[in-house]
Write a structure and sequence with these properties.
This protein is α/β, with parallel strands linked by helices and 649 residues long. Helices cover 39% and strands 16% of the residues. The strands form four sheets. The chain has a six-stranded antiparallel beta sheet, with helices on one face. A six-stranded antiparallel beta sheet has the order 4-5-6-7-11-12, covered by helices on one side. Helix 7 links the parallel strand 13 and strand 14. The relative contact order is 0.12.
């Protein structure tokens, strides 16, 4: 893990080293094992290094290759090292010592601007090509490392974080209204559809799965790959699909265990994090290493109001996984005294932009802290598992069978599903019909039904024409995806929208703060491509939803976890319970926002006032999903960001 920075003057103006040193000074708030810089007349490169992998210890970054006339600074862990050793013909005696940044440099020397296509891992890097007088860099497919830049008056600057860029005298701190418009108009968890934007008008970011080139007064961004393969794979049996999955997933997990420090993993009572832990522990036992698991639990005074099928306190299921897998040191934290409200300022300091996961913010950061205290260098998770390894909604698949007139297979599946989940065999048929034929929902919808309220003011929406832009990405005036088809939504999320951008920003910057690297094998490029290439019947079969991962974890996870289709963990169910001591402060801050004429114009006052009237009576603890509470939290988060960076005086 490293923070990288650089300056390049395209107009032959000499570099002001004071500007470079000032950027590096801004990065000193983060822990570092080493800080180095490199420069010539036109170029300055810096690296604020945190050593995570064995090869990174003592690594020289920035690194200048005198033979090839290339310089690199990088924030990277490359996972397909063995493949690159072969392709790049790295001698066997060098393979253990060669750093990931050197592999990136060799890849660029061989493949040029196509080089990111050959890299698997989490990375952001910039290369100065002295012969071509060109800067070239890239960001990994999911944006797990951040890379911001400015290009003003032939001066190109970049950095892992935003605030060092604001230290330049020629970069004005201006609010980007288009960013705020998209953030407020989108009701879902995506921050913006334009992944280049930041809240700062003159500062952009390299989007995930993109490379950047700066040469001859021209800056260009290019997408270098895709998550989804062009064809489905066809194997001979169900068993072969499972074996192929186990092979690619074990490889993805093993690659993410490469550290000389401790290894940890987030662990809930479900399949995704359980699978990560199970496969990781299997490999670590061979190395005689212990896996630390970190789990969030509600506080002692939380009264469970949820449905019997939901489980806010997942300890019983987590314990089953820990005992079955073995080789685990498990840790449980309730983060007493923390709430979504108490975390806002700290998150804005870290994120440098607003965020939409407030309901879970208190425990997400808490787990980073606790992992750091345990000396963890790699913190595994299964955050993207729902869309990859544990894909497979039974009802949506049954709707496909219905539309394809596969009646016999549908009846068989419904019978097996009812046996596993309980209830009558055809109780779900009306839901399946509505999923298969969405027009029925439109015909039976009540005229009085209204679209969910959006937080953006009509004036800002009109001024930025935001909904026209969102429409291009398949998002309508409700602020969410137009398509009701779950398979189409999945494709859009991976291919058309950089939906991971905000969450990846959070992971990258908290990793930097706590000197550890959060890594997700469920979103490994090879795993994602495999899961997209598998026929849908592998994900739902014989009455099992999420069937591929359930079959693949036989003898990895206990049966109570592997085959559970009756109880679901629900994280953050206590977020309103934790907000009670802060509630009056939240209400007062909303009232302050409404009175602030320079800020309130961004928001839909009618929507905020409606949420405020309801909320003044106090939070209804059992209504954790009430959109009015979410509206208040998001309003305060955006309000504080604007006050922090853009209000004068």
């Amino acid at each position: 893990m490293s923070a990288i920075a650089g300056i390049y003057h395209l107009n032959d103006e000499p570099i002001n080293l004071e500007h470079g040193n000032r950027m590096m000074k801004e990065l000193e708030k983060y822990p570092a094992d080493d800080i180095q810089t490199w420069h010539n007349d036109k170029v300055f490169l810096g690296c604020h290094a945190q050593w995570i992998t064995p090869e990174s210890v003592g690594e020289k970054l920035p690194y200048y290759d005198h033979e090839r006339k290339l310089a690199i600074t990088a924030d990277a862990i490359i996972d397909n090292r063995e493949e690159l050793f072969e392709r790049l013909q790295v001698k066997k005696e060098r393979q253990k010592q060669i750093t990931d940044s050197e592999l990136i440099l060799l890849s660029y020397y061989k493949w040029g601007e196509d080089s990111p296509k050959y890299l698997v891992g989490d990375f952001a890097f910039m290369i100065w090509d002295e012969k071509k007088q060109q800067f070239f860099g890239a960001r990994d497919p999911s944006g797990y490392r951040t890379l911001y830049y400015t290009y003003i008056n032939s001066r190109f600057t970049f950095c892992t974080t935003i605030e060092p860029l604001l230290s330049f005298p020629y970069i004005e701190k201006q609010l980007n209204e288009h960013y705020i418009a998209e953030f407020l108009a989108i009701t879902g968890m995506i921050d913006t559809v334009d992944a280049r934007m930041t809240p700062f008008k003159n500062i952009e970011q390299v989007p995930p799965f993109h490379s950047i080139s700066v040469v001859r007064n021209k800056l260009s961004l290019r997408r270098y790959g895709a998550f989804t393969p062009s064809e489905k794979i066809k194997l001979n049996s169900d068993e072969e699909y499972v074996e192929a999955f186990q092979e690619v997933f074990q490889k993805a997990v093993n690659c993410r265990l490469r550290t000389f420090r401790g290894i940890g993993s987030q662990l809930s009572g479900g399949l995704d994090s359980g699978a990560v832990v199970g496969f990781a522990a299997k490999e670590l036992k061979k190395q005689d290493k212990t896996l630390h698991t970190f789990s969030y639990i509600p506080p002692k005074d939380f009264v469970d109001y949820t449905h019997k099928q939901l489980m806010p306190d997942e300890r019983p299921f987590i314990k089953k996984t820990v005992e079955y897998v073995g080789g685990i040191s498990d840790h449980y934290y309730d983060f007493e005294g923390r709430s979504s409200y108490s975390e806002i300022d700290d998150y804005l300091d870290v994120m440098e932009m607003p965020y939409k996961f407030a309901e879970n913010s208190f425990w997400l950061r808490g787990i980073f802290e606790k992992a750091h205290e345990k000396g963890v260098g790699i913190l595994l998770n299964g955050d993207k598992g729902n869309s990859t390894i544990s894909w497979g909604s039974a009802l949506d698949y049954y709707a496909v069978l219905l539309k394809r007139l596969k009646w016999i297979q549908l009846v068989k599946e419904l019978h097996q599903y009812s046996m596993k989940t309980g209830g009558a065999r055809f109780r779900l048929l009306p839901h399946i019909v509505r999923k298969g034929f969405p027009i029925i929902n439109q015909m039976t919808a009540r005229d009085s039904e209204e679209e969910p309220p959006t937080l953006i003011s009509p004036e800002l929406a009109e001024r930025t024409d935001v909904f026209s832009k969102l429409k291009e990405y398949g998002i309508d005036h409700s602020g969410w995806l137009t398509s009701q088809n779950i398979y189409e939504q999945r494709r859009i999320v991976f291919e058309d929208l950089c939906t991971w951008n905000s969450g990846s920003t959070f992971n990258s910057k908290l990793s930097l703060r706590y000197k550890l690297w959060k890594r997700d094998p469920t979103n490994d490029l090879r795993v994602v491509r495999y899961c997209f290439s598998v026929p849908e019947e592998q994900f739902v079969q014989n009455g099992l939803d999420r069937a591929l991962i359930r079959r693949a974890t036989e003898n990895v996870l206990p049966e109570q976890i592997r085959l559970n289709q009756r109880v679901w963990g629900i994280q953050g169910a206590d977020w309103l319970h934790r907000m009670v001591p802060n509630w009056n402060m939240l209400i007062e801050e909303i009232k302050e926002l409404i009175k602030n004429k320079s800020v309130v114009g961004f928001f839909n006052e009618e929507v905020i006032n409606s949420a405020l009237i309801k909320s003044e009576k106090g939070p209804r603890i059992e209504s954790m999903s009430d959109p009015d509470y979410r509206i208040l939290m998001r309003s305060v988060i955006v309000y504080r960001l604007i006050k922090k960076y853009f209000e004068r005086g």
